Amino acid sequence: MGVEVRLQAPVTSVTHDAVSLQDGTIIPAETTVWTAGVRGDPRAGRWGLPTARGGRVAVLPTLQVPGHPEVYVIGDLAYFEDAAGHPLPQVAPVAIQQGVAAAQNIARQMAGQAPVPFQYKDPGSMATIGRNAAVVRLGRWTFTGFPAWVLWLGVHLIRLIGFRNRLLVLINWAWDYFLYERAIRLILPASRPVFSEGTGF
Ligand SMILES: Cc1cc2nc3c(=O)[nH]c(=O)nc-3n(C[C@H](O)[C@H](O)[C@H](O)COP(=O)(O)OP(=O)(O)OC[C@H]3O[C@@H](n4cnc5c(N)ncnc54)[C@H](O)[C@@H]3O)c2cc1C
User: Who lines ligand 1 at CB under 6 A?
Assistant: First the structure.
């Protein structure tokens, strides 16, 4: 099967059996791999909040919205540049750390103190890319394969809140692993687009 790369071809909708392009082309496809990233909720722009790339709200170093010291935006919806001017990625560690920082700043404001700038501490990145396979970057160290997968598993279990939660997820994952079954399946109506332009999904 040949591979074709199409440039300058924005996607307007994805359904269960096709991908539609802006120029009207319809590509039959039952499996779609989407790597274009996520957009912020379009409501942020409609509410008049200052948006940057990807529809994310450009926040102050304190995570407040410019002109609205009573409003904080964090996580995927926040556009926040690090000291080198690079936007922080839309990943869980950023959202978690910003959540804590915003809560602390709100407490400071309530105590009559000035909020302090947010500083992201990069814990590294890890992603599972298949059975027994993952990639991990920790500082200057990068490793792949089974050891990376075990580390990915351990870290994600430890990060879950509560022993009961951890145990349930461990049982679920063990079930998937030994029986080659996924516990979660999404069943979508055939007529409804999985993605359509303007919705963010
Ligand atoms: C498929 C996938 C895989 C990912 N894998 C990883 C990974 O391996 N590692 C990693 O670090 N990150 C991963 N991410 C990214 C990570 O999930 C996000 O960065 C993180 O969840 C952002 O947290 P958040 O609180 O900003 O947003 P969310 O976790 O999306 O939380 C937003 C919440 O707001 C609720 N909400 C939305 N609209 C409204 C409304 N109008 N009123 C009230 N509530 C509302 C939503 O229901 C949701 O609960 C992945 C994301 C996806 C989609």
Answer: 75-76, 90-93, 95, 127
Give the residue, by CA position, lying nearest to ligand 1 atom 38.
41
Q: Report the residue among 32, 35, 90 best suited for mutation to probe ligand 1: largest number of ligand atoms under 8 A from its CB.
A: 90
Q: In the chain, helix, strand, coil percent, each to 5?
A: 30, 20, 50
Asked whether 27 and 201 are in contact (CB, 8 A), the reply is no
Which domains occur in the chain, in start order?
A: 1-36 (no CATH), 43-110 (3.50.50.60), 125-179 (no CATH)
CA of 4 to the centre of ligand 1 (A): 32
Residue of 108 and 141 predicted with greater confidence:
108
What CA–CA distance (Å, rounded) separates 78 from 72?
9
Rounded distance between C-alpha atoms, residue 10 and residue 166, angstroms? 41
Return the ligand 1 atom nearest residue 41 CA: 38
State the Cα–Cα distance between residues 181 and 64, nearest whole angstrom: 44
pLDDT tens for 64-121 read: 999 999 999 999 999 999 989 999 999 889 999 999 999 999 999 999 999 999 999 9
Pairing between β-strand 133-138 and β-strand 64-65 as defined by DSSP bridges: unpaired
Q: State pTM to two decimals.
A: 0.78
Residue 9 scores a pLDDT above 90: yes
Q: Which atom of ligand 1 is nearest to the CA of 94?
A: 19
Residue nearest to atom 26 of ligand 1 (CA): 75
